[in-house]
Amino acid sequence: MLSDILKQGKCFKLVCGAGNEDAVEVEKLVYLYSKAGCSLFDLSANLEVVQAAKRGLERAGILDDRYLCVSVGIEGDPHIDKAEIIQNLCVKCGRCKNICPQNAIFENGRVNYVKNKRCIGCGKCVDICEFKAIKMFSQDVDLAKVLPPIIEEGIDCLEFHALIEDEAAVMRKWKILSHLYPNFLSICVDRSKIGNEKLLNRVKKMIENRTPYTTIIQADGAPMSGGCDDYKTTLQAVAMAEVFQDAKLPVYILLSGGTNSKTMELSRQCGIMPNGVAVGSYARKLVKEYVSRDDFFENTKVVNEALSKAKALVNSVFLQYNMRQEKKCQR
Are 145 and 46 in contact (CB under 8 A)? Predict the structure, then answer.
């Protein structure tokens, strides 16, 4: 069961991207990381994507102890944002295309455009465009219509990105989600909009009527920032987790946002003991050149090279877990 893996502190969650609706890529990522030992997969609230993830698990032949989590956001949350190019301002310099981690920007004749299904709302293209030719828009959906067929398809957890300041809006959507899916729920939070005290009060209010340890807190240090594999990149994820560990809430805690192969090592050094780690940007970047190939499933050499890199990342989490357990036993 998912709760067993969380209790053991050995949950590795692959974040495919709340905005990533590229079913072909998701199938490859789930196949690859399930074989590497990943136990939980974070997916867009898209039925086709959930079905693709299941195909990935079936291809891998590993169905036991593998779980699916679907993420949803709220207007104002970057995880449901999409980029759009303003054509009359675009000079086709190519900088946005080169920096996009998802290869979501394409050239079509004289026009650059964003492929919505691949855009994850990271905003890197907006930041780099000196001509102000790219804007972000929120792709909010009616969850009461979108989620029922996904839940019927079969998932193990539903995650809510509660990142905006509007407390009333967050609670309204949380009430809808709790009604639609009364099982395992996850709350993704960061400190970009509100401080620690307000954040803790929000989470306490959200879980006050829930059975203890049926909620995951995904402590998102710096959302969608995990492009580098160093300690500084993952520092905020560890700091964010400390807030909830110190609060001693009846929840499971996952590190997220800037996470990489150094995350659990830094966590252990700081005395933070999460129930696992969620890795997105860095995990996808590691295998990007492989999963982008059309012959991925047919090319054994490509799969093996990609699997080697994925295993190294997953094992970095388990290694630090084992070291933490050994340290406990020595005390």
Answer: no
Degrees to nearest 5, angle at CA 145 with 140 and 148 = 120
Express each pLDDT in 294-326 by its tens digit: 999 999 999 999 999 999 999 987 765 555 554
Task: Catalogue all structural domains in the chain, each as residue range(s) with its CATH number.
Answer: 2-75+140-295 (3.20.20.70), 79-138 (3.30.70.20)
- Which token pair is 26? 């998701």
According to DSSP, the residues that pair with 111 across neighbouring strands are 108
Whole-number Å distance between alpha carbons of 177 and 284: 28
* CA distances, 100 to each of 55, 163, 207, 225, 226 (Å): 27, 23, 36, 12, 13
Residues 125, 99 contacting (CB under 8 angstroms): yes
Q: How far apart are CA 54 and CA 48, in angstroms?
A: 10
* Strands annotated E in the chain: 11-15, 40-44, 67-72, 81-85, 105-108, 111-114, 134-138, 157-161, 185-189, 215-220, 252-256, 276-279
Instruction: Quote the pTM value.
Output: 0.90
Q: CA 54, CA 168: separation in Å to the nearest integer? A: 35
- What would the pLDDT profile of 260-282 be if each residue is shown by its tens digit? 999 999 999 999 999 999 999 99
Q: Where are the beta strands (DSSP E) in 46-128?
A: 67-72, 81-85, 105-108, 111-114
Residues 91/131, Cβ–Cβ less than 8 Å? yes
